[in-house]
Structure formats: structure tokens, C-alpha cells
Design goal:
110 residues; alpha+beta; four-stranded antiparallel beta sheet; three-stranded mixed beta sheet; globular
Length: 110
């Protein structure tokens, strides 16, 4: 019986960890190779380069309100203010991509 109880405790542990999660994630589509920066109401900043697939994700952000900025070669291209995060949830923020294709285009000559 004790082994069964111990085994159940191990199985339930990941759920307990998720229940304590107090942050969120900002994710979405953007032109491949560009930079997405998030700035929180506390002035904390994080940034990521958009993957070749056109996807980006910035996780483990404290709850609050964020401004999400798309940058190309260090210059601001587009800004989305007032993005709110809720406990354990993400906020999708998509940016326009040329010809609706965010992924990196690979030429046949490459």
C-alpha cells in the first residue's frame, strides 16, 4: 500500500508544479530572422530572434502588461501595446509577414 501511495505521489508531482506556475508566455508569428522584444510594466525586457519557421515564443514572463515590439536590424517595425498575461496562459501576438509567409524562404539555388 505504501508503494502505491508513493507511486501516485510521483505521478501527481508535475500537476503540482504546474499549479504553482505564476507566469505566462507571449508567442506568435513574425518574419523569420527579425527580433521580437517584450517590455513589461516593470521595465524588464526580453527578446528573441524569430525562428526560420516564423514562430517565436518568450516564456516564463511574470504576470502583468507588456508591450511587444518587432524589430528589424535594430529598428522598430511594429508595436503592440497593452498585452496582458494571465496565470498559466499565453498571449498570441502575430505580426504581418511579406505575402503572408512568415517562414524563411529557401531558394532552390541554395
Amino acid at each position: 500500500m505504501a508503494a502505491l501511495v508513493a507511486g501516485l505521489g510521483v505521478l501527481l508531482e508535475p500537476a503540482a508544479v504546474r499549479a504553482q506556475d505564476t507566469g505566462g508566455t507571449i508567442f506568435g508569428w513574425a518574419p523569420a530572422g527579425q527580433t521580437v522584444t517584450v517590455k513589461g510594466s516593470t521595465e524588464a525586457r526580453r527578446h528573441v530572434t524569430v525562428k526560420d519557421s516564423g514562430r517565436y515564443s518568450i516564456g516564463r514572463l511574470p504576470l502583468g502588461t507588456y508591450t511587444v515590439t518587432l524589430e528589424k536590424e535594430g529598428k522598430e517595425v511594429d508595436v503592440r501595446p497593452n498585452i496582458g498575461l494571465q496565470v498559466g496562459r499565453g498571449a498570441e501576438v502575430d505580426f504581418a509577414c511579406p505575402a503572408d509567409h512568415c517562414e524563411k524562404q529557401v531558394s532552390e539555388e541554395s
